[in-house]
Amino acid sequence: MKRNDNIPTEWLISENPVPYLQAIKFMKQRAKDISMGDAKELVWLLEHSPLYSAGTSAKDKDLIDPDKFPVFTSGRGGQYTYHGPGQRIIYIMLDLTKRGKDIRAYIKALEGLIINTLSQFNIKGKIHEGKVGVWVDRPEKGNNCQDKIAAIGVRVSRWVSFHGISLNISPNLSHYDGIIPCGISDNGVTSFEDLGHITPIEQVDVILRQVFEEKFGTTINCNLKEIS
Predict the structure, then answer these.
(1) Which of 89, 154, 179, 182 is catalytic?
(2) Do the beta carbons of residue 138 and residue 60 sit within 8 Å?
């Protein structure tokens, strides 16, 4: 995945939970503006109120309890996932025409972003062959047991990416009970907190930015105050 140091990527952190449909609307417009050359690339860190989102490969049978939380259809890749408090959502809007036009390399770079971030907190993340996302070995649960700590689902339009990553810091993991996350029933989910790492989300944000700049290029603070 090529770096792009010509124009810094904007970096935005929303302090309050952002409604899901509002976030989707904003990302679609921002991706269009980036493709037209009317806006800079953007990384947007936020949280959502509890919800389930269905990617383009979601299966009806994987929605176990449709009444537990609001359910939204999403244009991103992947299956069902959960979003909620204690989870850092990382929406990434990059112009892939400037970064090699290679979606697989982009996904791999996102996985690397999370693995390198986790390593700064003494958490060993890894790739699960044939499955997107970042996983952690859980030998205490049995041989070859792995739990997912970060889900990845992206969409690319006009070679501009949006959607991105959900990284579990301290969410209520029982909230995943209403779905089979990512269609995977033989593994579980975990978080910093579940692994014994009590870490402020703001501290994770700092490391995420440092690692992003190492992999993708420089960043500048975004002066956008509200998303509409």
Answers:
(1) 182
(2) no
Output phi, psi for 48, to 5 deg.
Answer: -115, 155
> Among 88, 78, 153, which Cα is nearest to 118's?
88
Q: Is the dihedral of CA 41, 218, 198, 165 positive or negative?
A: positive
pTM of the model: 0.95
| Model pLDDT for residues 61-72, shown as the tens digit of each residue | 999 999 999 999
Q: How far is CA 54 from CA 25, 62, 73, in A?
A: 16, 10, 5
Sign of the Cα pseudo-torsion (4, 91, 154, 114, in order) = positive
Domain locations in the chain as residue ranges: 9-221
Catalytic (active site) residue 145: no
CATH topology of domain 9-221: BirA Bifunctional Protein; domain 2 (3.30.930)
